[in-house]
Amino acid sequence: MGSEWLNRYVSIEKETDFGEEPSGTQIFGEVDDESFKQTFDLLVRSDMSRQVASKAVTNTKYGEGSINFAVQPDDFMGWVLSSLLPVTVESAFYDECTMTSRGFGYLAGSGALTDDGGTTTIGYWEVRNGASGELDSDNDLSGTNGEEVITMTSGQVTDTAWTLHAGVTVTPTNPGYAILGEPDSSSTTKGTYFSYTGVSGDSQLTGVTTYKADSTFTTAAAMTTVVDNTVCVQYENYANGIEPGRVYAYITVPGSGKSAVADLDEADDFPGLSALLNASPKIGGAAITGAALAIGGASKHVFNEPVAAADVYPSFSIRVGREAKEHTFTGMVSTRLSLSANLNEYVMASVDWVGQAEETPGDIQEGVTFSGNDVDALHFSGAELYIDGSLNTSTKVQSITLEININRDIDSAYAVGANTIQRIPPSRTREITGSMEFNEIVYSDTTGLKGEPTYADLATSTTVHALHGGQGRPALLIKFQDQDDADHMEIQLYNVRFEAPEASVSGRDPARMSVNFQGFYDSKATGAAKAIQVKLKGTGLSTDAYA
Amino acid sequence: MVSLEWAAGLGRAIPESWFPEVLKMTEEKCINFSKRFPHGAMLPEEPKPAKKAAPKKKAAKKAKK
């Protein structure tokens, strides 16, 4: 008899050839439970000679099992992710496009982002504005803050432009937010962040408070006169953190073998962008500066769906220590991964595997080293959800689940001549589904929403509620972090559509809302050309790709 | 949120690839995080000035036949 708890483990090791047990480095995971087994039925003769059948042989055999574990930023998690998203790169991939200044006053628009002067698209840039316009004359803003009036060109204020903020009518309790010109802390004339509480006629914003360069709209600051035609752009939704008139860029092709690029050129690498700045008669906007491409850096990994013929799903040998003996399952491939983040829990993962039949149990391994020895599991308080490109995490989501299922077809992996599978069970439709529970019923007049779908969006609208902005903007970005907000896993979905919500009230429970969603491929011409992308970063992760 | 200069004062060799995360940390979290790394200087070295390309040597003229 073995030494019980000392010899419980699950390890995975990538196979070079399907079904052939490798003898390299195993990666041991700190799993909560496993259920690996081999499965077969009896193939029973059904002759008419006797009432009871007299002959039977072993029918098709295969191995299957699930593991449940807390998500940790360790190599075990990295290999698990690579089993479903096998196009993976460490460090040398474009991670994000950074800028010293995102500019001011650009009109809304989007276009390609390149790293070679306009030839190779690696992503997209976009400017997200609410309404936009320009001053009708020199505006003296030296009066009492909160009572100022900004006058724009006539006709620019309409029932929908400037009158609404994030879909809700602008009032003193739901002010609108905007940027005039190029805010500068040392100037009272170049521009300012400002809020307003109403509109008048077809050109005026009333109840204006100016904040100069304070983008948090905290400390009001007096202005003097801002000149005629200075550009004025409204926040699409102040709560989501996306500033109007400014440029945000998303990488859709992270690539491999990349190095950081320090000096992107606005004219060449952001085609179409310069035309949106200071378009006549507008003046006072400022161009982006210091645009650069940052790479992932050491121990940051990106995982993507297979896109080329060479991108194949890997198979693994999984060894399970069961106190006295080691059970080995070769040719194992993952078919489903589910993740869940609930209050008071670690972020949990569950993975289903299928593969060849089990081998004869062998000697147990002793004193194994788990890949997550030095890291803590990610947990609910570090879970964040960013909706539709929002820079601010939602504060209304109480739990979220996500499942990726590639529906492997075991039947297609058999061949006559053997009763176990002979090739990797082919994958079928990739299904990405999930659910989220909100801590209240989110109504359309709820203020402070950061892109969360409302009950009206989900239930009473005549069209399906879709988050599908294109341009590589994540429809949902789920981020799980450790307690230092350092190690993390980031899941990006690019095209999300919601099912009908549930918002029933029961007994004395508070009213909440939950909704299921599905993730789809982003097929827009200027889209991500993928359904999902995952990034994993941790100080304990390998500095080699999981490939 | 801490600055890189503040984090450098912790005297831990936090790699440059973690600077984006450091900039979003509170002081308490940054102190905890820094303990994962050995003692040492954090800030990256100043980029070295690019070396001037060696002057091209003129191709030797072919000897006249």
Briefly note the structural class of the backbone of chain A.
mainly beta
Number of E-type strands of chain B: 0
Distance between the termini of chain B: 76 Å
Taking Cα atoms only, what radius of gyration of chain A do you get, to the nearest Å?
28 Å
Report on the architecture of this protein.
The complex is a heterodimer of chains A (547) and B (65). Chain A is mainly beta and 547 residues long. Chain A has 3 domains: 4-47 and 55-86 and 306-364 and 372-537, no CATH class; 92-129 and 247-303, no CATH class; 132-235. Helix content of chain A is 4%, strand content 38%. Chain A has 3 helices and 34 strands. Chain A has helices at 75-84, 266-269, 455-460; strands at 8-14, 27-29, 31-34, 37-44, 56-70, 87-98, 109-114, 121-127, 132-134, 139-140, 148-151, 164-165, 168-169, 176-181, 191-196, 198-200, 204-210, 225-226, 231-234, 248-251, 292-304, 316-322, 325-341, 348-355, 362-363, 383-387, 397-405, 431-438, 466-467, 476-481, 488-493, 496-502, 513-519, 532-537. In chain A, the strands form 6 sheets. In chain A, strands 1, 2, 3, 4, 5, 22, 23, 24, 25, 27, 28, 29, 32 and 33 form a 14-stranded antiparallel beta sheet that branches. In chain A, strands 9, 11, 14, 15, 16, 17 and 19 form a 7-stranded antiparallel beta sheet that branches. A 6-stranded antiparallel beta sheet of chain A has the order 6-21-34-31-30-26, covered by helices on one side. In chain A, a hairpin with a 6-residue loop joins β23 and β24. In chain A, 48% of the residues are buried. The mean pLDDT of chain A is 94. Chain B is an all-alpha fold. Chain B has a domain at 4-34. Chain B is 26% helix and 0% strand. Chain B is built from 3 helices and no strands. Chain B is globular and about 20 Å long. The model of chain B has no long low-confidence stretch (mean pLDDT 79).
